[in-house]
Amino acid sequence: MNTVIAFIVIFGALVFFHELGHFIFAKRAGILCREFAIGFGPKVFAHKKGETVYTLRLLPLGGYVRMAGEDPEMVDLKAGHRIGALFNEQEEIVKIIVTGKDRYPDARVIEVETADLEHQLMIRGYEDGEEEIKAFPIHREAVIVEDGMESQIAPWDRQFASKTLGQRAMAIFAGPLFNFILAFVVFILIAILQGMPTNEPELGKLNADGAAKEAGLMEGDKVVSINGQGVASWNDIVTVIQKNPQAEMDFTIERDGKTLDIPVTPEVREVENQKIGVIGVHSPVEKSFFGSIAYGAKETYFWTVEIIRLLGKLVTGQFSIDMLSGPVGIYVSTDTVAKSGIMNLMKWAGVLSINLGIMNLLPLPALDGGRLLFFLVEALRGKPIDRQKEGMVHFVGFALLMLLMIVVTWNDIQRFFLQ
After folding, report:
1. Cβ-contact 290, 192 below 8 angstroms
2. Is 272 a catalytic residue?
3. Which domain of life is it from (predicted)?
4. What pLDDT, in 10s, does the model give residues 4-26?
């Protein structure tokens, strides 16, 4: 159960911050955001605040921000349609009732001749009982009611496509950007709470069941030499210990101004088919606010480069697709990391956040990187690509990604549960 909770919290946080990036920069650009959703499928929870509906959906495998103009979501009022209309004090239409007019006894019935819900914000037609055609202005925040569901209209200047290329690109890029920011903040918190590893020749925390604790070493001991060989850094200490599994070693240390000689016998651990020595000691750490910021930037950069390097191996064939992991693999890895403590779990979340950001920036259809690629083409040719053609490319790309997800998930199931 703890693993399930950890997985939901981590995955939910990654998705939330990713979509929050899209949402904030879309709102800054003046785009109408109809829905902020975590998950896919049927709604589990919905709450409307302002002009946005915030929802939790059944399948917690992603999320989205539904922006006006991104989908064919509005009703097309054609000539001959009979609609109900509610007006404000300025005689502007604030509610257009397409179906269920009997539920609004105060609505005035209008037979539509022409309607423009994007640019002119006007309906022209005949009101019941009158023969003269009239023009009825529409309020910018009017809603359309169909089958009991209300949808706010989106004037052209509130739609995604109406914004500048830079505004649209930033609204899309902000999702992955916020994943990198989240990782940066997580690594800073780790450094503040746990401290930052240093390379000083000192002993950090000792494992309760480790050889160092059993031999009498203590946290804070400064190591002067091992078997008479001087050591100048933590890396020196690690190198000597790893080379001497199960061989008694004489540690010369300084503690409280005194020099002590303590014999320690490293235990054996197998790492990548190689036996190394370990004594159950962590590296020394230091705590500093500004140092924590530098550590957060350093870790974010390191894992970004590392993940890109692994992607390069996948592209060049040095990395098999069978080694990729989907939600099942991430869950199993989360279970393993969770057993090693909250700090390692936080670090795992930071790495996953960077991974999500990089994956979304790949120039593949249906991903944020694919959208940005279309924007680049638009910038080069001076005009946007036909929206229907772009939509078809993204649809095919999404289908292929879902197929890849199924293959990766099946591989995970076989690897972790069927072997």
Report:
1. no
2. no
3. Bacteria
4. 788 888 888 999 999 999 999 99
